[in-house]
Amino acid sequence: MNYIGVLLDALETGMPFAIAYLGVWMVFRLQDDFDLTVGSTFTMGACLTGTWLLHGHNPWAALVISAVVAGAAGAITFAAMRLLGLSLVLASIVVNVGLFSVNLAILGAPQANFFSAGTIFASWSRATGIHDTQYANILLGGGITAIVVAILSFFLLTETGAALRASGMNPRMVRSVGVSPAVMLFITIVAGNALCGLAGSLVAQQQRFSDVNMGIDTIIVGVTAVLLGELVLRGRSVVLHGVIAVVIGTILYRCLISYVLRLGVNPNYFNAITAVVVFSAVFVRKSAGVRWRFRPSIASRLLPKGAVK
Fold first, then answer.
1. For the chain, how many structural domains are there in total?
2. Average pLDDT in the 128-155 region?
3. Residue 188 belongs to what domain range?
4. Which residues cross the membrane (predicted)?
């Protein structure tokens, strides 16, 4: 078994997905909830990108458009939750179902390839002179992921970011100091879905292929990546521990997928493998007595003593 090849495959395919799983992590960990809209917004980013590139437009602009439109879709989920009095999970399920038809209309077909269209990966390879496609993809995907990680970490270390994290821990306390938990949840949902849209655009450009079903397992694989990363990486920093854990967990998960592929395992069994990984991660966490919530750090210094629990 070529383990270097497994790692390179994981890095190449995992970097764009890590951005999507950061979007999952934001709601799952910072707000202690689930937003199933991420599956459709990931697909939306891919579908928008496919249509955009097939019309010969700038591939870099596709990243921005995908993130903005996906963030708007997240805002629809929040509006449905607030106006109809639904839970986030139920509201996201309803919006997720509706977005399937929207994505199909955007792409114009269940599937589309754009092998002859220009992508950011093709332009990057030409600009740098790197002829090895895999290395070029790793460098560009890793660079974009690093930028997203840096921006997200910086935001979460600001006062607004601290209030956002604290609102998921203790909404009543946050409300008492003049911060609206609803606004913090809105920011989290919109940002999380925007990240998924951006990731969908990256994955579509890397694969030169879009499919209306390509984001169906985003939420469950995202949670798997979060759990795997947290098992491996432990630290006192809420932000760095959480964000970097997602990236590490994503790479570990993609290593597992690459490994079983090289063993010749039928891809139809991948969902079962994912389920086993999730249950195993939960079992190990509970056996080791690892807390599910992060330790408060900057939030406990910015907010009143005893507020963050």
1. 1
2. 92
3. 3-302
4. 6-27, 60-81, 88-109, 135-157, 178-202, 214-233, 240-261, 267-284
In a domain, 308, yes or no: no
CA dihedral 254, 40, 74, 55 (to 10 degrees): 100
DSSP class per residue in 81-95: HHHHT--HHHHHHHH
The 8 Å CB, 24+ separation contacts for 137-141 are 137/12, 137/206, 138/8, 138/11, 138/12, 138/15, 141/11, 141/12, 141/15, 141/16, 141/202, 141/206
**What type of residue sits at position 133?**
T
3-state secondary structure 240-295: HHHHHHHHHHHHHHHHHHHHHHHCCCCHHHHHHHHHHHHHHHHHHHHHHCCCCCCC
Provide the CA 234 distance to its chain's centre, in angstroms: 20
Q: HSE-up of 206 (CA within 13 Å, CB side)?
A: 26
DSSP string computed for 17-57: HHHHHHHHHIIIIISSS--THHHHHHHHHHHHHHHHHHTT-
**Of 98-112, 152-166, 221-235, which gets the smallest average pLDDT?**
221-235
Chain-centroid distance, C-alpha 257? 18
Instruction: Print burial letters for 63-92: b (CB count within 10 Å at least 16), e (below 16).
Output: bebbbebbbebbebbbebbeeeeeebeebb
CA distance 74 to 66: 12
Q: Which amino acid is at 273?
A: I
- Rounded to an integer, the average pLDDT of 272-295 is 70
The CATH code of the domain that includes 56 is 1.10.3470
User: Considering only CA atoms, which of 38, 35, 28, 94 is closest in space to residue 215?
Assistant: 38
pLDDT tens figures, 142-152: 999 999 999 99
Phi, psi of 230 (to 5 degrees): -70, -30
Q: What is the pLDDT of residue 103?
A: 95
